[in-house]
Amino acid sequence: WSYKGCYVDGANARVFADQQNDNSALTIESCINTCVGLGYSIAAMEYSVQCFCDDFVRNGGTLASSDSDCAMTCGGQSNEVCSGPNLLSVYSNEATLQIYHPPATQNALLPGDWQYVSQ
After folding, report:
1. Which ranges of the chain would DSSP assign to H, the alpha helix?
2. Where exactly are the transmembrane stretches of this chain (predicted)?
3. pLDDT tens-place values along the chain, 119 residues long
């Protein structure tokens, strides 16, 4: 497993799908071990106590403007960084992360007077 960067998250469009219960004793190792146990290839930490697992970066997740933006220490290990609010410290056993972008709105293909309102 290796560090893949500091990613921007969104509360309404999460970058990783499987959020674990908040853990005030969270460490990088505990999050990775949880995700490995669930069969995932990505582990991400947010806000010192949150662990997310997935196999893909969803909703067009992007890198933060600076890696130093992810600066909050882990709840269970003050010498480790577990990101910050709306930011994720991401680790994976994959060489390259697969990023999935939301599909573009396609109003032209909707029937009758239907229209796309929101996602």
Report:
1. 28-37
2. none
3. 999 999 999 877 899 999 999 999 999 999 999 999 999 999 999 999 999 999 999 988 899 999 999 999 999 999 999 998 899 999 999 999 998 887 776 666 777 777 777 65
> Where do we find the tokens 């007077």?
113
pLDDT at 107: 63
Q: Which two tokens stand for residue 77?
A: 């290990």
Q: Which amino acid is at 17?
A: A
For 68, residues 6+ apart whose C-beta sits below 8 A from its C-beta are 6
Compute the distance between CA of residue 77 and CA of residue 55 in angstroms, rounded to an integer. 25
CA neighbours closer than 13 Å in the CB half-sphere of residue 91:
21
Q: Cβ–Cβ contacts within 10 Å for residue 33, how many? A: 14
Retrieve residue 21's tokens.
Answer: 């219960």
Would you say 95 and 50 are in contact if contact means Cβ atoms under 8 Å apart? no
Q: Where are the domains of the chain?
A: 2-102
